[in-house]
Amino acid sequence: MSRIILFVVASLLLFTACKEESRILPKYGFEDVVDGDTLNHKIPPFEFINQDSQLVSNESLSDFIYVSDFFFIHCPTICPKVKKQMLKIYDKYEDESMVKFVSHTIDPKRDDVSALKDFSTKLGVDHDKWYFLTGEKDEIYDIADDYFNIAIEDETAPEGFDHSGKIILTDKEGHIRAFCEGTDPETIPQFIKDVSTLIDEYRQTP
Amino acid sequence: MYEFHCAGCHLEDGTGLGEIYPPLTKSDYVIENIKDFACIISKGIRGPITVDGIEYNEEMPGNKGLTPVEISNIINYMNHTFDYGLAPQQLHETKEYLKRCE
Asked: Which CATH number fits domain B2-101: 1.10.760.10, 3.40.50.10260, 3.30.750.80, 3.40.50.2000?
């Protein structure tokens, strides 16, 4: 009897191990069918300005996978928590050239280029690795939608904005491949694994 | 109380964020300025401060509406959780310290 149990446990372990090995990250979002082809949800073309006044667009990011979030500097609620988790992920991939980090402010009126520059400097991160982006408010809020993040201007919310703390992983083609809750540190280790899985996917099929 | 009023920026574990929000874990600043904490919590603080050799210069808003008892509880929670090793602050002491910024 114990042999049978051992066999079952061993098979299960083997199965899980194989499954782990060959795991392919899903492409999140609704699918569209155009001319008979199924198209996965993609982040639409965008152009924003970073903390060094440089243009960052879907094109300039097309050779990278990137980890992104939405925040604002005066946020007294969830942002510092999310940033702390972003920093954890950043520390892990600081030397991995395929990965970039993108933080969109949802308060472009106050968070201009110089405010973002000051913020990122104080956060102590590499400006060529982690972009803090500002731009037209409507465009920022629209793209937040595309990342399944909520961003709303709300007078009753602390400091005037309400938003969610999702951290998103986008691939080179603009598909969302993984996400986690920046407010929940327990979701971060799996997300870090997902980033590595995506890196491997590109390394295996160059 | 700490979680609601302080942890948003200084985080639950008190480690703060980069050079933006200073840590509330044990530091030279905390130990030397603990008597000012009642006023800082109540009224906020602006202008540069140096914590363990790092300068921070973000404005911290005050927490209007906190009572002396609540402020005392927050300080004693930090003292206990972050192991400052200081004697618990008595309510009459907190009230005394609060007079400095009234």
From this structure: 1.10.760.10
